[in-house]
Each structure stands twice: as structure tokens, then as C-alpha cells.
Automatic annotation (TrEMBL), chains A, B:
Occurrences of domain Peptidase M24 (ranges): 162-378
Signal peptide residue numbers: none
Lineage: Bacteria, Pseudomonadati, Ignavibacteriota, Ignavibacteria, Ignavibacteriales
UniProt keyword list: Aminopeptidase, Hydrolase, Protease
Name this polypeptide is given: Xaa-Pro aminopeptidase
GO molecular function ontology, one term from the record: aminopeptidase activity
Keyword Protease: yes
Pfam family, one: Peptidase_M24
InterPro entries: Creatin/AminoP/Spt16_N, Creatinase/aminopeptidase-like, Pept_M24, Peptidase_M24B
PANTHER family: AMINOPEPTIDASE, CYTOPLASMIC PEPTIDASE PEPQ-RELATED
């Protein structure tokens, strides 16, 4: 991850600390090549061997307390105003720094809800408490969850431009698939073709290679989270692909739907066209309503209700999720009020969060109509990160 | 990692639970693609998304409690006698299982000392405690550190055979370097040559690519943990390389020393030859003494004292470390009584542990003499995992 982005994220973190009224945030790690706190890539970008504390303060000061062998590496990043190297133990320099700053609240990376905010191991938590034993600071530790979900959610300018590049590269591969698809090819053939292009371009899949890309053709395809099968593409099939890449540390996640014309057809049958348009319009309705302050469940309701009102079954998953360094990133999601989603459907959406919008519906006898777009929340609405699919793509 | 090895490790874990008098060991994880407990690769080999408990019992029973979406994957591994899938929460099936087994002690993966035993995050620790609230089990949690260091240290037959293959492949690359080295090439040239071979063979470096391989030529080279420089190999230089690969999930870690003959020389000068022999003999003295029950500090003393008795300065690091899936693996090490090594120099060595032996000494005006071998502790001694370097390699 380039230092430019890390610098932007550290500045954002300072804003967030002020907004959340927290004085200090410590990311406390060791041997990050073995066990890595998910935040290290976002705010440090270097590995640590000995116990290291990466500190961001509400007053804007940044400090790193690291083993002497890594001091120079960290100085080189230019990210931390104070780089304090130690030989014996991190304890003394850490206490010295805390006494100097005297923070009233100290956020550390643990969370019951969010794995991305839960990078602190229990052993390291115990060590930190040993070091703070007998000081006031021990009672000032709080969870960094709200800092981290805000920081990961609110994309910086550089993050957004990289995510747009990732989407552009991804759509080029969808275009190649449009030219490649023909009756007789299997779902696996299409997936292999995509993997070949990825390999040529040196792209990593955004999620497991078994299901990235996921390719579905025809009626009653495998469930949304299965890998490609030997099922053959036939005339009269709806074909979809769910696919994304990891690009400069950021993920893309898109879906497109194709229809394979039958002999004599020049357009899709009416019911196929309608199914596609219901999905397309559901996405637009959400895009028209989404903005800072609304909740994800409200957005899910809009799409879910519109689709069921048109006489289709509801999609068996959430409407959309945040995307970032992880394909499922951040806290809030465009989720229904289902227990497994916890409180995430009810969190207010914020400017600069990037969400997928990905409803689906089955068209009896033809297959599944589905589109997945990515939008970024703007001050008063949202912006598609790429031109949305407005028309069914016809395969002759 | 092949299931065969995982099966061997699970059987070893059962023995160790009996030996350590612990009833149950739970590896409790979630979203292992984001934050991975270092033990997952060794005892599961699959990713988890929802909260999952992988359980090994002293009575030999193995169980996995996993999200329903992953149940089939885990069943397929054939590693767990009971695979319990859940939809709502891991809590109920976990409590049911605990009530059924009623373990008197439950080891979980946390440790202040060992990062490899510290895969449980603090948030997951809190969740586990929430689930156990009001039960006796909450007070029966203990650290799995002694289980994990024994399990990682004691290599199974399959692990040893893979580690030998890794070493064989590594030595082939050292042999290629012997043919490649010539005056005028820089340390970086040699490193690039090694990286080219690794790329062709699809090998990963055993540690950071900046310092793997590490190449040193001539007098007063960069410190042992620096990367290759533009310094040129010259006639009359001692040249060394510290290098290892990651092969089928396991690391190798070896060093060899070459001498570049000066015009008219047919062998190395006496002081170079002596320096090399002192290192070679120091390693053999340790190999003669090392066996189960001795401590690492005793082994370090043997090499360190022998080298200083010969009038050379002591090496500025430990004599050796364990190797496994991580290049620095296991608990005990062949370390001096320096504070930063904690209790690891004083742990008794065990059969099947694999250690490096890597002393070094400077030869004034020529460079560094150093060799690194890997040995496995046997019932009554040790065995070199590859033929040790007995002669200085001469470059004409």
C-alpha cells in the first residue's frame, strides 16, 4: 500500500479520534509476518518483529515504538513524527510516552463484532495490561471498533481512485467474457478463461479462487456461493458472473447478466427482459435513495419490496456490503433485519463508504437475472463507480 | 498442507494432551482469511468464516463446530470425527459438546511468550467467555502454549521428509551458486541469480525477500541481517550466503561459505582455512553433544566458548533456532542467556525437534566464515538433515 494512502488514512484517523472523542489509538503488535493485525496494512505498511506500538493521537501526533532492528525501516516510511527504538523492552518507552501524553482514553484493536477491529491477540492484551499495571492507563483502555469501522469505511481520495481502476480492469474482463460466451461452453470453461486473463495480467482474485469468478448458466443454477460446474451454456439461457479482483491492495466486486439468443430471436423473451429490468430498476431505486444518514436495512427494504411487489421471490442474501481492502469490508451493510447481521443493518451510512448493490431474481425456465454495481456515498447521495449495466447483454 | 500431515499432527496432539494432563484443546477462530490463528494450517488446513471451534480431546476424539456453510468442507477433510454445523450461533452446540465431555481443563490459544501459541484474538476470548458465562468451564481455561510448542517442535515423519526435500532443493541452488560465483559480480548479482532460479522452480523464500538470500563478500561485510549490496566479489574474499525456501509449507535455512582463490593460490590461506575449520568443528562439537534433555544454552556455550577459546570474537546472535512451517519455529532455541531470549534457552530439547546450528566468525582481511546446518534431535543424539559442509568451497 503506497505511503500516500497511509498518510491519508492517518489524517482521517486523527479526524475520527476527535469526532469520537478518543485521545489515543494504539495498534499493538508483534511478529506481524506470523499473526497480522488487519489494520497494519492500512496505517503502517511495514512488518514488525519485536513488540511494537503504533500510536495516533487526537492532537495529530503520531508515534511508533519499535524494536531497534526495525527503527530505521519505520523512520524511512516518514509516517510517524516520533520513532522510538528500544532494545530491552517496549514497556519503558511506552509508559514514558503515555505519561507524557496522559491520554484520558486509549483505543486498542479488539472487538466482539468485527474481525477487522479485532487484531489484538489475547496474549498481547495481557502483556499490555502487565505493562500498564499500577498506572491509571490500565482503566482507560477502550475498543477501537468505532474508529476502525469509520476509518475503513470512509475511503480517501487515493483509495477511491484505486478502487475505480480496479473496477475498470474488472469490467474489461467482463467485456472479454461477452465475446467469449457461446452455447456449448461450460461454466468452468468461462471461469478458466477469466483465470487465464487474470494470470496474464497478474491479478489476484478478490475472494476464494474456487468461487471467483462464480459463473451461472440456465434455470435453477447452483446456489449463489457455489463454484462453476460442468453445466453447459445453451441458447435460451440467462448467464451471470460474479467476479472481482484484488488490485493494488483493493478489491472489486461486480456482476453482469447475459442472455443467449435462441434461433430466430433478436431480443430476449418478454419475461427475461422484465426480470432483468426489475433488477436494474431496483438498483436505481436504491441509488436514488441512498445517502449519508440512511440505514442499510432501509435500502434493503427498497430493493426487496420492489422485487417481491413485482411478483418475484426475495433474494436469499443481503442487498449489498462495503468493499475496500477486503471484499467484505467496514461495518455497516445493506442488510435485512436477520439475526446473523447483528447491528450492521441499522448503522447510519456515511459519506465515502463504498457499497455493492446486488439483488437477484430467478426467471422461470431461463436462469437468474442479477447485477452487482459498486457505489460510493457522496455528500447528498451516491455515485456509481462505473457505468451501471442498463441493458441485458445479448449473445448471438 | 496435506491431510496426511494434519492427521499425524492431530495424533501427536492427543499424545501431548495426555502427557501434559490436559483434557481438551480448542482452537477457536473466525474469518481466518482476515486473521489466521497460526495453528489452523497445522491442525485444520481449511478456512473458517463463521465462528468455529476445532477440538482435540485427550481421549482421542476430535470435533469441529462450524457454520453450516462450511460443514461440508470440514466433513470432506475427514479430520474430525464429529462435525457439528450450526446456523444461528456456535454457543449452543459448543456448550452441548462441553457438557457432554465435561473437560476438567480446556486449553485455548493464547500466550504472552510465543506468537505461534497466541492466535486467539482478545475479542474472540471475550466471546468465548460470554458463551461460558455461568458454567464451570469458564474457570477451566488454560493456555495451550505448552501443547503448541511441543506439537510444532516434534516433527512427524511426513514433516521430516518434506523438510529434507526442502533442504535438498535448497542445496541444489547453493551448488548452482558455486558455479556462478566469480570476481566482479556483486552481492546483488548473486542474490538476483538465486531469485531467478527460485522463480523458475516456483519456490517462495523462507523469510523476507529483501534478505533471502543474504549474500556477503569480503572483509567487514554488512551485518548478518542486512540485504545484499553492490559490493563486488574479489579474489581473496570469503563469500557466504544465508538462504532458505518455503517448500510444501515448510522452511529450510542454510548457510555455506566460499573462498575466491587469488592468482597462484591452489588453496585458501592458512588463517582462512583455520577460521573455516573452527566453525566446522564448533558445529560438530554441538552435534556430538546435542540430544533430548539438554538445554539450548548448553549447546550455545559449547560453540561460543570453543570459538572464543580459539581467539575469535563471539558471534553476535544465538547459535540456532527451531525450523518448521515458520523459519523461526517452536519454543526452545540454542540461545545464550541474554534477556531477550526469555526462558527459551533453558527449555529441555526434545526428540524430533529440528534446529539450525549457525555460528560465525570474522577472518581479518578476508571476510566471514560461517556455516548453517539443520539437525533433527533423535532418541540419543541428532542427525544432520543434509551432508554438512566439511570443506571450504574454493572458487577458481
Amino acid at each position: 500500500m503506497s505511503n500516500q494512502i497511509i498518510k491519508e488514512k492517518i489524517l482521517q484517523a486523527v479526524e475520527i479520534l476527535n469526532e469520537k472523542n478518543i485521545d489515543m489509538w494504539i495498534t499493538f503488535v508483534r511478529e506481524t509476518k506470523v499473526t497480522k493485525d488487519p489494520m497494519i496494512d492500512m496505517i503502517v505498511g511495514e512488518h514488525s518483529t519485536w513488540q511494537s506500538a503504533f500510536i495516533i493521537n487526537r492532537d495529530g501526533e503520531t508515534a511508533a515504538i519499535v524494536g531497534s532492528i526495525e527503527e530505521e525501516n519505520i523512520v524511512k516510511t516518514g509516517l510517524f513524527q516520533k520513532v522510538i527504538g528500544y532494545v530491552k523492552s517496549v514497556k519503558e518507552p511506552l509508559l514514558e510516552y503515555l505519561n507524557d501524553k496522559n491520554p484520558k482514553s486509549i483505543a486498542i484493536n479488539y472487538s466482539k463484532n468485527s474481525v477487522l477491529s479485532d487484531g489484538l491477540t489475547y496474549g498481547m492484551y495481557l502483556l499490555l495490561n502487565d505493562y500498564l499495571e499500577g498506572t491509571e492507563f490500565k482503566n482507560r483502555l477502550v475498543s477501537a471498533e468505532e474508529i476502525i469501522s469509520a476509518l475503513r469505511g470512509r475511503k480517501s481520495d487515493s483509495e477511491l481512485s484505486i478502487m475505480k481502476e480496479a473496477i475498470t480492469e474488472t469490467l474489461k474482463i467482463f467485456d472479454a467474457v461477452t465475446k467469449f460466451i457461446k452455447p456449448g461452453l461450460t461454466e468452468k470453461d468461462v471461469a478458466e478463461y477469466v483465470k487465464k486473463i487474470m494470470k496474464e495480467k497478474g491479478f489476484q482474485p478478490a475472494w476464494d479462487e474456487e468461487t471467483c469468478p462464480a459463473v451461472f448458466t440456465g434455470p435453477n443454477p447452483a446456489s449463489a456461493h457455489s463454484g462453476p460446474t460442468d453445466r453447459k451454456i445453451e441458447k435460451g439461457h440467462l448467464v451471470n458472473m460474479d467476479f472481482g479482483i484484488k488490485y493494488k491492495g483493493y478489491c472489486s466486486d461486480l456482476q453482469r447478466t447475459w442472455y443467449v439468443l435462441r434461433d430466430g430471436e433478436t431480443k430476449a423473451p418478454a419475461e427475461v427482459q422484465k426480470g432483468f429490468e426489475v433488477i436494474r430498476d431496483a438498483i436505481q431505486k436504491v441509488a436514488d435513495a441512498i445517502k449519508p444518514g440512511v440505514t442499510g436495512v432501509e435500502m434493503d427494504d427498497i430493493a426487496r419490496n420492489y422485487i417481491t411487489d413485482q411478483g418475484y421471490p426475495e433474494y436469499p442474501h443481503g442487498l449489498g456490503h462495503q468493499v475496500g481492502r477486503e471484499v467484505h469490508d467496514g461495518g455497516a451493510g445493506l442488510f435485512p433485519r436477520w439475526e446473523r447481521y447483528g447491528n450492521t443493518p441499522f448503522m447510519k451510512l456515511e459519506e465515502r463508504q463504498v457499497f455493492t448493490i446486488e439483488p437477484r431474481l430467478p426467471v422461470e425456465g431461463f436462469g437468474v437475472a442479477t447485477i452487482e454495481e459498486e457505489v460510493v456515498i457522496t455528500r447528498d447521495g451516491c455515485e456509481f463507480l462505473s457505468p451501471p449495466q442498463k441493458e441485458l447483454i445479448l449473445i448471438k
